Amino acid sequence: MRFKGQLFFCLFLFLALSVFSLTRIGITAITDHPALDAIRFGIIDGLIQEGLVLGQDFEFEFQSAQGNMSTALAIANHFNSNAFDLVVPITTPSAQACANVIKNKPVIFSAATDPVAASLIPALGKNPGNVVGVSDMTPVKTQIQLMKLVVPGLRRIGIMTNPGEANSTVLKDHAQIACSELDIELVEVVGTNTSEMIAALSAIVSAIDAIYIGTDNTAASCIESLHRIALAQKTPIICADISMSRSGGMIGYGFDYYAFGIDTSRMVLEIIRGKTPSEIESRLIGPESLQLLINLDYAKQIGLMIPEALIARASFIIENGVEREIK
Amino acid sequence: MLGIVEQGLILGLMSIGVFISFRIVNMADLTVDGTFALGGALCVRLFSLGLNAPVSLLLSLLAGAGAGILTGFLHRKLKINVLLAGILVMTMLYSINLRIMNGPNLPIPKTSVSASLGTFEQVAGKDPLADLFEPSAPVAAPQKEIAKHRTFENIFLGTADGQDLLLLSAIVLICVALTGLFLRTELGTALRGFGTNPSGLESFGLPKTLMTLLGLGLANAFVSLSGGIFALYSGFADVTMGQGMIVTGLAVVMLGEILFVRRKLVYGIFAPILGGIVYQGILAVVMRYGYRIGFRASDMKLLTALFIVAVIGFGLIQTKKRMKGKFRLSTIFGGGVGRD
User: Fold this and answer.
1) Which of A281, B65, B188, B245 has the smallest number of CB atoms closer than 10 Å to its CB?
2) CA of A50 vs chain B CAs: smallest distance (Å)
3) Contact B132, A310 (CB under 8 A)
């Protein structure tokens, strides 16, 4: 799929050289990861859905920094050349590198969870300067409330978190606030890589009533293993990411990263059509894009009843091994 | 173009550290990955606490030297293999860096109040599922004040008029000059001798331990300084910023040596700087044109490692030819500078 895209890109690049009204987009992410790839595909597909033709109206180049900050900065420098009209950095560190290097062309960040704390923008809304974008802040409190709704007598939640990930740490802080509001004890289950995380969960799973997973890349990479451990102890998992919950959550409430990319593409489109970044509001992905996934099989396996009122609100239900979408 | 040279200079400064540990004192020091991030983390933390940029850099340089000295201590006093000692200190630094930054990522502040976005409920308004739950009293997120009434003046402006380049060149030149002068002093000469023949030097009354601490301390001071400059230059520090730096640094050192045939000591120290600029140049070219032939930026790590293997392998063949079978291990890790 990705390889095919590259072939097309090569083809279009040559066609593109003769076209004038062409917007050249530089896309970068700090690492290669299914969720980040989904954002990228969403951005491209979103532009195509709006009637733009790849190779004729726009072309793009994707560079991954493979987790290396030095490379992230080199990529930002590369995108700063005349060959690019606008830059879309995905994730917080990539956005920071681009925002600091690129001063005279639009930088549209995507999936930086707290762009204000990361010094990308002073606040949401319109800001002076060339940086604008979409935050993937997720409704942490609602996610924890959902857990409270379905797990009777919920006292203790374990949160899977990698202290090395900026996004994950932000959500952990928010979960801490939400839990103190809801009178729940929050236990940090920490791992700096997948094997540490799996070991940490195995050690603590019997002492917690539910597992909360935010938009943590490390947890996303080992969700199948976490799922097995949780299932053995009849512990439910709630995820802040729909695609992650498909692979191992009982409840997922958040957004699809592909849809997130589509959402980002609208902002890119506004820039292509002539707006400047200071005319566009930086925002969250709106509440209307939130989706709810419920895995009834998982609930049955661990003996939990999901209230009918909640099932009625679901966007996706997994039952008897089949997922169906509810309009 | 300017950016490439600037980044090359920062990388070159880091590689001087690698050059000192691998070439001059002849030790494979892997602390580098940790000290680079330590330099960045500490520099940004101190800077946001209200110290000015040069002082922050200087203190992070000293902290880096401390980390190198710790590696040397573990190696000499506790008899831990130098590779393992480096990895141990690097691992410690990961946790320490998280403590220093109080999180994985710390941007250079622009205002005196550490702002944050706030929770989803605070900024997005009503959640679609809100009616399912009983309302609960919201707790306000604490706003932390970093430093009172301060504007933060970064030494790097991020403008394209060459000012940053000038400043970086000056820093690098001063560092190279000071190192060159130091290596000519009695102590510096001893350090170079130590890299070539540690036991022989001990017979002159210079203890191995002191030389190890000095060499690794100096090397990591450069790495940490470079990390601090990198963080100020790029506007943030991240706990993962040192990842893979040792391999990049080694490749840069070797690249510099190939491009720059070293006759005199001072040129030897310049080689990593040149290597750094060329390395960044190659990276830029790969990004610019490699993409069209299906080359991905993620292949760069493989290429860098293969390059190092090729240079070592080629060097070995050359030495074997020259020495007619008299093989010395030091030809791999010890270059020429220490012993000319």
Assistant:
1) A281
2) 26
3) yes
How far apart are the CA of B132 and the nearest CA of chain A, in angstroms? 8
* Chain-chain contact of A78 with B300 (C-beta, under 8 angstroms): no
Q: Which residues of B touch A115 (CB under 8 A)?
A: 117
CA B314 to chain centre: 27
**Opening angle at CA B326, ends B324 and B328, nearest 5:** 135
Q: Is the ipTM of this complex over 0.85?
A: no
The closest CB to that of A164, out of B11, B239, B294, belongs to: B239
d(CA A39, CA B214): 49
Q: Which residues pair with A63 in a beta bridge?
A: A28
For residue A87, list chain B residues with Cβ-Cβ distance below 8 A.
none
Answer yes or no: same fold for A2-136+256-285 and A140-255+289-325. yes
The residues that bridge with A238 in the sheet, in sequence order, are A212, A251
The C-alpha atoms of residue A185 and residue A314 are separated, in whole angstroms, by 27
Phi, psi of A206 (to 5 degrees): -75, -15
Give the pLDDT of chain B (340 residues) as one tens digit per residue. Answer: 778 899 999 999 999 999 999 988 888 999 999 999 999 999 999 998 888 889 999 999 999 999 999 999 999 999 999 999 999 999 999 999 999 998 888 888 766 556 777 778 777 777 778 778 777 666 555 555 544 445 667 777 766 677 888 899 999 999 999 998 898 888 888 888 888 777 777 777 778 888 899 999 999 999 999 999 999 988 889 998 888 899 999 999 988 888 877 666 667 788 899 999 999 888 888 877 877 777 766 677 888 889 889 888 887 887 777 765 444 444 444 444 433 3
Q: Report the topology of domain A2-136+256-285.
A: Rossmann fold (3.40.50)
Q: Which residues pair with B254 in a beta bridge?
A: none
User: 3-state DSSP call for residue B62?
Assistant: helix
Tokens found for residue B267: 């040129």
Q: What domain range includes position B190? A: 2-111+148-242
Contact check, Cβ <8 Å, B120/A139: yes
Residues B25, B211 contacting (CB under 8 angstroms): yes
In a domain, B325, yes or no: no
Residue B199 within any structural domain of the chain: yes
Domain count, chain B: 1
Residue spans per domain, chain A? 2-136+256-285, 140-255+289-325
Please report whether residue B62 resides in a domain: yes
DSSP-assigned beta bridge partners for residue A89? A28
Q: Look up tokens 């070539």; give the residue.
A: B196
**CA B149/CA A7 separation, integer angstroms:** 54
Q: For chain A, what is the radius of gyration of the CA atoms? A: 21
Strand partners, A187: A158
DSSP string, A166-217: HHHHHHHHHHHHHHHHHT-EEEEEE-SSHHHHHHHHHHHGGG-SEEEE-S-H
Q: A74 to chain B, minimum CA–CA distance in Å? A: 7
CA distances for A83 relative to A132, B176, B201, B288, angstroms: 21, 35, 56, 10
Backbone angles phi, psi at A139, to 5 degrees: -75, 80
pTM: 0.79
In a mutagenesis test of the B interface, which of A68, A238, A294 is the best target, namely the one with the most B β-carbons within 10 Å? A68
The superfamily CATH assigns to domain A140-255+289-325 is Response regulator (3.40.50.2300)
DSSP helix/strand/coil, A282: strand
A68 interfacial to chain B (CB closer than 8 Å)? yes
A93 at interface of B, judged by CB pairs closer than 8 A:
yes
